[in-house]
Amino acid sequence: MEATKKYLTFSIYVAVVFIVLTSGFRAEAADKENCLMCHKYRFIGRIDENGKKINYNVDGHMYTKSVHRNVSCRDCHTNIKKLPHDPVTEEVNCANQCHVKPPFAEENFSHKKIIDSYNESVHGVKSEDSPELQKAKPYCKFCHLNPIYTRVDEKRIAYEETLARCQNCHQKNGVTQAYKHITHRLRHKTSRSPQEVVSLCSKCHQDVDLMKTLKVSDVSMTAVETYNHSIHGKAVALGSQEAADCISCHASNTLHDIYKKDHATATVNKDNLKTTCKQCHKNTNDRFIEIAVHSRIDRNEKPALFFASFGLKLALFATVFGLMGLLSLETYARKKNGLKWQIRRGTTWRGESKR
Predict the structure, then answer these.
(1) Peptide bond preceding 103 in cis form (omega within 30 of 0)
(2) H helices of 73-146, where?
(3) Each residue of 132-169: pLDDT tens digit?
């Protein structure tokens, strides 16, 4: 009888947990047309003309946590006119106008300004580009994967106190709404870390075969390699969140305005380098910007730099191995003189020397 009660209690507990977990994964926020009724299944998809399997599954839990959780499906998939819909043949256009109004705005939100900036950049597809180059250029979804918000420490934003001070003068509802929107964006960090930025850019720029196909310069061919050997690259590799990554130098706050260095508005143009470097290095001057960030130390092209680097490496290894050798000789001498190697009361060597 006691065992039956325990089994019954356990069964009820499991059932309650199952109901709570499964009911919490529904994405009702913007899915008013119940698209997830079909797209919630993990293996929903098709085989395209090239034999590649395309998965149309949408994870409801991730959808409700994503940056697009308030955007209905057909705000992006505008080519769908009826439900159930016919086979989708058009890709999503990120420049579409959404049915969401930001604070103080009279028009619905749109990515059009960012799209225009992207189209003018080096990554935007141009009419004069070769078919290979057009195919190789990254589109919106290559970089943006609809990231889940990552919480930022609340101590970084004195939310209630700051808003209370603002309301001493600004009592209008619009100001409060705008402030809440801005702090909401600050509270939820969506940008990538320097390590993720370098990894993302390296997917294409360290592909030597792809770079050769696009006939880039020798400097561009080795850009990832030389960056990884630079002080910036090494700091990022060691986990720094402050060191410059790719877009720190190659883009402004717009992030999408990446141009070739001979472009007048490029952040890496020689006329703009001082402003770019001053973001981190406050005492930047004309001589400072002459330092090559992507410098490849070649013996024939830069012999002085090559031998200086070689000498520093030699001094480093000589110091390390010299200390190890000295430690080995000291250990040998102490053992020979009858000292015992044991740790007791904070002392490594014990006993009296024969000398």
Answers:
(1) no
(2) 73-76, 112-120, 131-136, 140-143
(3) 898 899 888 888 876 655 555 556 656 666 667 776 66
Residue 283: closest CA among 274, 292, 270: 274
Q: Residues 178-216: pLDDT tens digits?
A: 776 676 666 666 678 899 999 999 999 999 889 988 888
The two tokens of residue 88 are 């989708």
- Give the Cα separation of 69 and 98 in Å (integer): 12
Look up tokens 């590799």; give the residue.
237
* Helix (H) or strand (E) run with residue 228 in it: helix 223-229
- Tell me the C-alpha distance between 107 and 273, whole Å: 37
**Contact between 144 and 123 (Cβ < 8 Å):** no
Handedness of CA 220, 222, 224, 229 (dihedral sign): negative
Residue 315 forms beta bridges with which residues?
none
Radius of gyration of the chain (CA): 30
pTM: 0.64
Pairing state between β 347-350 and 340-344: antiparallel
